Amino acid sequence: MKAMRIGIVGSGNMGGGLGRLWAKAGHQVIFSYSRDDDKLHQLARLAGETADFGTPTEAVTQSEVILLAVGFSVLEDVLRDVGSLDGKIVITCVSGLQPDFTGQTIGLATELKISVAERIQQLAPHAKVVEAFNITFAEVIA
Ligand SMILES: NC(=O)c1ccc[n+]([C@@H]2O[C@H](COP(=O)([O-])OP(=O)(O)OC[C@H]3O[C@@H](n4cnc5c(N)ncnc54)[C@H](OP(=O)(O)O)[C@@H]3O)[C@@H](O)[C@H]2O)c1
User: Fold this and answer.
1) Distance between CA atoms of residues 136 and 113, nearest Å
2) In a domain, 74, yes or no
3) pTM over 0.90
4) Do the Cβ atoms of 19 and 47 come closer than 8 Å?
5) pLDDT digit string, tens, across residues 78-99
6) From ligand 1's centre to the CA of 10, what distance in Å?
7) CATH number for position 122
């Protein structure tokens, strides 16, 4: 297996869990984007020797694969802040559902009839965007 450099942007239930699995499988993982640096530090420590933490920009510039695992409400701000995603494989698990699951914020049932992945592709046209894990509950990954 070729070890890959994977930047995690959004180190909560999904990003923390997937990043930990990927680090345990031998990939180089950088956890980023939390309001709590201690949490990022702990995640990296528990994930093992191939894991580290940093800013979202560091996670993006130092990685060939990026996992976007943030809430949809902050997604566009995050994409503006992280710098160029040109040529990167960008995996998104970001859901377009309202946080209380009562409806969609983006998607076929809204005026903007595109998926979250299509919106990311619009904002980062030279990235290779892949939607995955967005119907997998974090508990399953944990
Ligand atoms: N949970 C699931 O089972 C599940 C399943 C499929 C898809 N999804 C989707 O995956 C995405 C992530 O879900 P999640 O459950 O992993 O969410 P989460 O646990 O809340 O993680 C979100 C991450 O973003 C960070 N964050 C949020 N606002 C921030 C801000 N203003 N500044 C800095 N960091 C900020 C959080 O930081 P803090 O550490 O400071 O909170 C956290 O690390 C969402 O779009 C969700 O809809 C979730």
Assistant:
1) 23
2) yes
3) yes
4) yes
5) 999 999 999 999 999 999 888 7
6) 6
7) 3.40.50.720
% the chain with pLDDT above 90: 82
Residue 97, beta-bridge partner list: 104
**Is residue 142 situated within a structural domain?**
no
Instruction: For residue 78, give its domain range.
Output: 5-133
> Nearest residue CA, atom 20 of ligand 1?
12
Establish whether residue 67 lines the binding site of ligand 1, counting it when its CB lies within 6 angstroms of any ligand atom: no
- Largest Cα–Cα distance in the chain? 46
Number of domains in the chain: 1
